[in-house]
Every structure is written in C-alpha cells, then in structure tokens.
C-alpha cells in the first residue's frame, strides 16, 4: 500500500484512514453457525483442549486450559456442540483448533468467580481471576496479562500507562471502547492499581486524532488527581510499549529489558476493561471490538464480535465487498498479517480487519537495497532493519540476533518506507521465529 509520510525521527505518519469508522457506534456482529477457536491465540505455549468431539458446552465454559506459565485459557463464546478438533487456517498458519456448532440457545455457564466483589478482592484474587479469565494483551500483542501484572521480585511499579494511542491506520476499535466504555476503563484502573501499592501515577495516553476519546476519558476521570489523560502527537508507532514509556516518563527500557525494570506497566484500554469485567462480573474473555474497514468494504463498521467468529461473517455484516479486494489483513496495514482464507477466525488480539484494493496492496517489485538509510531513520527502537534482513537471508541467525532482531517491535515502518520494496518486516519476523526455535532446542 502507498502512504504519504511526514518524516519524524524514529517514526512516520502514514495516512490514517480512520474517518470511515471513527464516529461509528459499536454494533453487534452476527453470531455464525460454526465458530473456530485456535488453541494458539496468545504468545506462549498453546492451550490444551479439555473438551472432546461430541461434548456440549455453554457460553463462558472453558474449552482449553493454559499450556504453561506463559499461556492462556480459552472459553467458548457460544453454547453448542464440539464438532471437531483439528487444524484450521489462522493468520499465523495452520493451528490446532476447537470447532463448535452454535445451538443459538446461548445457555450461560457459571461465572469464573462470584460477581460483584471486585472492590473486596485481594491482590492474589485479582491476579488469579485475570489468569483464569484468559485475558491477554488485546492491542495485538496477546501476551498473557496475569504474567505482565506479576513483575519479578524486587521490581517496584510506580507508574501505570493505559495505552489508548491506537496508532495503526484504519483501526478505531480502542477509540470506540474509550468513547462508549470510559467508566469501565476507569473501574479497571482502580482494580489494577491495587496490585501496586507504590503506584504514584496513572497516565492514559491517547493520540490527538481522537478528540472524542480524549473528551470521554477526561470526563470519566474528572477529579482524579493521580490519573492524567495525556494527548499524544499522532505518529506511528506512537503506541509501542517502550516508546510510550519514554514519551510519558522519560525513562528508557534497556534493549531486551522489561517495562518493570523502569517501574512501569503498560496496558491496552480494551485489556484493562476486560480485567474489570472479569473481576466484577466473573466474565472470561469471550468477545472483543473489531473495526472492519477499507476501500472495498461496502459499509465499514465497528463490531462487537464473539471470539471464534470467522472473518467472512464480519465482512458479510458490512455488506460484503464493493469491489474485488487486493489484500485482506488480520489487523491494520502496518502490522497486520495477510490472510488468503476468509474462514480465519477472530481471536483475542484481532483489533481490525483491513481490506485493501489491488492498487493499494501493490507493493511493487523488489529491488536491491539502494543504501538510502530510510529504514534506519524510521525505526522507533533504533535498529538497522536492512542488516538484520540481510543476515537472515544469508542464514546467519547469530548475526541477526546480535543486530537486535529480538528487539524489533514489528511495527512495519521499515517495509513501508523502503523504496526498494524489500520485505524487511517479513524477514525480521522470520528471523525472530527461527531464533526462538533454535534457542528452544
């Protein structure tokens, strides 16, 4: 896709394309007849199915349990019958999945905890409830939230940053959550702050291209002196975790380090809302808000979607395609992954479905690097993307690692700015995967 860029050190300014959905209220998505639940919809070990073909399940019933410390439980978002456990397509390739046939009864399972007790919960209760609910980073990172909220011993947290930047073009799902559920985000902040007795400041960072969200969050936090709603310059990738910490606090997370090392925790707005709903209502994570947008989409929308819903159902809710699409992305145009099968399902980290025309999707023919250094200029974590890509192409994973491949935040700036159309992001992603596999033995 072609973008016009305003050059800024360590970032860029792609066309936002948010006007199609920014002011559209959240609508209920159609719940399809068959839903697909990949057991790998989070960073870490795949979840382990605890149901069998033929089992009847209820809404909010666990169907797969965390497969390790860094993993997450998965719950059914409908009631019905487990009709298969098999590999299905996902944005990351074929993944073992639990297939459930919706009975349209929506029989509710038991809440994961007794509702109405969030204000009475201990720190251990909160962490356990977040873990049990299967909550992961809903801004796209999908790192298990209970792990994030449990920093290593000796690390003190004094700053909570609520990430409402939503810098990815097209996507407005978090924007609508801040407008329509500001009070629940604030309640989530009150729950999370109990975990950190030395917490001094809470920042809610929102890019200045979201005036309605800024207004909504300011109203919800009125009179709360230790919560600051902070407008941010609209720049991609303003919402990157380490960059946001530096912008808000002036602290710099060391390469390979954790936010907790500089006394910070960063949480996406939708994630913190999910934590509140788990602790107050006993709700596991079974739905999310998704923006469906792009030139070929007949009627772009923000939709409340049951986890497991195939993408083609959402596209149908939006009136289908008005023209033949060139590319369909799970996510936005910068970090999203292309999908060729519209049966790929919505998972916990799916913020958007973005559809591009053939002209927008035309990346051009790859050429040799012209040594323009543009990829270095726009990298927000000061890497040398072309050198990492070259090392991977040559099969030198050790060199790619030494150059900082594992510190890449996969923002996609390098690929989009590259005049030679070198697939830098794809190569770096592949390098990271290969390094992880090599280190796993």
UniProtKB/TrEMBL annotation:
<dbReference type="Pfam" id="PF10531">
    <property type="entry name" value="SLBB"/>
</dbReference>
<dbReference type="InterPro" id="IPR017896">
    <property type="entry name" value="4Fe4S_Fe-S-bd"/>
</dbReference>
<keyword id="KW-0677">Repeat</keyword>
<comment type="subunit">
    <text>The complex is composed of six subunits: RnfA, RnfB, RnfC, RnfD, RnfE and RnfG.</text>
</comment>
<feature type="binding site">
    <location>
        <position position="414"/>
    </location>
    <ligand>
        <name>[4Fe-4S] cluster 2</name>
    </ligand>
</feature>
<feature type="binding site">
    <location>
        <position position="418"/>
    </location>
    <ligand>
        <name>[4Fe-4S] cluster 1</name>
    </ligand>
</feature>
<dbReference type="Pfam" id="PF13237">
    <property type="entry name" value="Fer4_10"/>
</dbReference>
<dbReference type="InterPro" id="IPR026902">
    <property type="entry name" value="RnfC_N"/>
</dbReference>
<keyword id="KW-0004">4Fe-4S</keyword>
<comment type="similarity">
    <text>Belongs to the 4Fe4S bacterial-type ferredoxin family. RnfC subfamily.</text>
</comment>
<feature type="binding site">
    <location>
        <position position="369"/>
    </location>
    <ligand>
        <name>[4Fe-4S] cluster 1</name>
    </ligand>
</feature>
<dbReference type="Pfam" id="PF13375">
    <property type="entry name" value="RnfC_N"/>
</dbReference>
<feature type="binding site">
    <location>
        <position position="372"/>
    </location>
    <ligand>
        <name>[4Fe-4S] cluster 1</name>
    </ligand>
</feature>
<keyword id="KW-0249">Electron transport</keyword>
<keyword id="KW-1278">Translocase</keyword>
<dbReference type="GO" id="GO:0051539">
    <property type="term" value="F:4 iron, 4 sulfur cluster binding"/>
</dbReference>
<dbReference type="InterPro" id="IPR010208">
    <property type="entry name" value="Ion_transpt_RnfC/RsxC"/>
</dbReference>
<feature type="binding site">
    <location>
        <position position="411"/>
    </location>
    <ligand>
        <name>[4Fe-4S] cluster 2</name>
    </ligand>
</feature>
<protein>
    <recommendedName>
        <fullName>Ion-translocating oxidoreductase complex subunit C</fullName>
        <ecNumber>7.-.-.-</ecNumber>
    </recommendedName>
</protein>
<dbReference type="GO" id="GO:0009055">
    <property type="term" value="F:electron transfer activity"/>
</dbReference>
<comment type="function">
    <text>Part of a membrane-bound complex that couples electron transfer with translocation of ions across the membrane.</text>
</comment>
<keyword id="KW-0408">Iron</keyword>
<keyword id="KW-0411">Iron-sulfur</keyword>
<feature type="binding site">
    <location>
        <position position="408"/>
    </location>
    <ligand>
        <name>[4Fe-4S] cluster 2</name>
    </ligand>
</feature>
<keyword id="KW-0472">Membrane</keyword>
<dbReference type="InterPro" id="IPR019554">
    <property type="entry name" value="Soluble_ligand-bd"/>
</dbReference>
<dbReference type="GO" id="GO:0022900">
    <property type="term" value="P:electron transport chain"/>
</dbReference>
<dbReference type="InterPro" id="IPR037225">
    <property type="entry name" value="Nuo51_FMN-bd_sf"/>
</dbReference>
<dbReference type="GO" id="GO:0046872">
    <property type="term" value="F:metal ion binding"/>
</dbReference>
<keyword id="KW-0479">Metal-binding</keyword>
<feature type="binding site">
    <location>
        <position position="379"/>
    </location>
    <ligand>
        <name>[4Fe-4S] cluster 2</name>
    </ligand>
</feature>
<feature type="binding site">
    <location>
        <position position="375"/>
    </location>
    <ligand>
        <name>[4Fe-4S] cluster 1</name>
    </ligand>
</feature>
<feature type="domain" description="4Fe-4S ferredoxin-type">
    <location>
        <begin position="399"/>
        <end position="428"/>
    </location>
</feature>
<feature type="domain" description="4Fe-4S ferredoxin-type">
    <location>
        <begin position="357"/>
        <end position="391"/>
    </location>
</feature>
<dbReference type="Pfam" id="PF01512">
    <property type="entry name" value="Complex1_51K"/>
</dbReference>
<dbReference type="InterPro" id="IPR017900">
    <property type="entry name" value="4Fe4S_Fe_S_CS"/>
</dbReference>
<dbReference type="GO" id="GO:0005886">
    <property type="term" value="C:plasma membrane"/>
</dbReference>
<keyword id="KW-0813">Transport</keyword>
<dbReference type="InterPro" id="IPR011538">
    <property type="entry name" value="Nuo51_FMN-bd"/>
</dbReference>
<keyword id="KW-1003">Cell membrane</keyword>
């Amino acid at each position: 896709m072609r973008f016009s860029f305003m050059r800024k050190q360590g970032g860029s300014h792609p066309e936002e394309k948010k006007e199609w959905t920014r002011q559209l209220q959240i609508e209920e998505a159609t719940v399809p007849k068959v839903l697909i639940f990949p057991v790998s919809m989070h960073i870490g070990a795949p979840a382990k199915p605890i149901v069998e073909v033929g089992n009847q399940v209820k809404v909010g019933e666990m169907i797969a349990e965390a497969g390790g410390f860094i993993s997450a439980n998965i719950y059914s978002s409908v009631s019905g019958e487990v009709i298969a456990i098999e590999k299905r397509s996902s944005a990351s390739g074929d993944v073992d999945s639990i297939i459930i046939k919706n009975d349209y009864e929506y029989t509710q399972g038991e809440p994961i905890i007794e509702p109405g007790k969030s204000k009475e919960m201990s720190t251990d209760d909160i962490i356990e409830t977040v873990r049990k609910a299967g909550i992961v980073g809903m801004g796209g990172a999908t790192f298990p939230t209970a792990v994030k909220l449990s920093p290593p011993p000796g690390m003190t947290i004094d700053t909570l940053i609520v990430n409402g930047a939503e810098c990815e073009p097209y996507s407005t799902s978090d924007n609508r959550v801040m407008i329509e559920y500001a009070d629940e985000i604030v309640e989530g902040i009150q729950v999370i702050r109990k975990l950190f007795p030395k917490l001094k400041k809470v920042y809610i960072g929102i890019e200045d291209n979201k005036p309605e969200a800024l207004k909504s969050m300011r109203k919800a936090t009125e009179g709360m002196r230790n919560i600051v709603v902070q407008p941010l310059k609209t720049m991609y990738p303003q919402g990157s975790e380490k960059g946001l910490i530096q912008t808000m606090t002036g602290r710099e997370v060391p390469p390979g380090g954790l936010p907790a090392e500089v006394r910070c925790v960063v949480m996406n707005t939708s994630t913190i809302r999910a934590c509140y709903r788990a602790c107050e209502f006993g709700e596991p994570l079974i739905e999310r808000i998704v923006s469906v947008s792009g030139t070929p989409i007949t009627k772009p929308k923000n939709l409340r979607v049951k986890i497991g819903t195939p993408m083609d159902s959402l596209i149908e809710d939006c009136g289908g395609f008005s023209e033949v699409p060139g590319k369909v992305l799970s996510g936005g145009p910068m970090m999203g992954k292309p999908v060729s099968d519209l049966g790929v399902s919505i998972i916990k980290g799916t913020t958007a479905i973005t559809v591009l025309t053939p002209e927008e999707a035309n990346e051009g023919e790859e050429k040799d690097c012209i040594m323009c250094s543009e990829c270095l200029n726009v990298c927000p974590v000061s890497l040398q993307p072309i050198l990492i890509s070259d090392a991977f192409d040559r099969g030198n994973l050790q060199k790619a690692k030494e150059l900082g491949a594992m510190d890449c935040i996969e923002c996609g700036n390098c690929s989009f700015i590259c005049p030679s159309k070198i697939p830098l992001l794809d190569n770096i992603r592949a390098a990271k995967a290969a390094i992880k596999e090599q280190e796993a033995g």
